[in-house]
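>> Question from a student workshop board

For tomorrow's exercise we were told to take the sequence and the ligand below, predict the bound structure, and bring the output to class. My setup keeps failing. Could a helper post the expected result so I can at least see what it should look like? The ligand is zinc ion.
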Amino acid sequence: MKYCIECGAKLTEKECINFGLSEGMIPYCPICNEFRFPVFNIAVSMVIFNADYSKSLLIQQYGKKRNILVAGYVNKAESLEQALVREISEEINLDILDYKFNASEYFEKSNTLICNFIVRAKNEKFTLSQEVDYAEWYSIKNAKEVILKDSLAERFFDKALAKVCKKDYLLSA
Ligand SMILES: [Zn+2]
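>> Workshop helper replied:
Here is what the output should look like for this input. Compare the format with yours to find the bug.
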């Protein structure tokens, strides 16, 4: 960030002291007299499994025939957990059994920090919203084959598999 998002003035840098501790040099607007911390978006994405981790749900969106994860932006004042529950309800209306944090990655194209969770569904019933073109439960082996290659979705999916600790067993089943 080179210019102030409020007034457009060129930013300088100034040491930021918080509770007596230095946070280092932070972009600073000399007109507004305010620090301008980095601005980015936050989104949640979910690797969704059925109750016994034998299947995973992938979706297709925006008219594209590629299998990806359910995801969405976090609204202002919302927690990651609230965004996760809302997005799953809005996009596929699936009942959630439990969820846990998986991994996060910064996605430069949309200036977004994407926080991924492993979600377990109570049952396999879902209802597509208008935001989703298609969704299907795949065996873990098939999900691995059809998920969009070399994508963030695939990296999150692989990490989730490693975390549910049944990777080899499930892939050979
Ligand atoms: Zn300013």
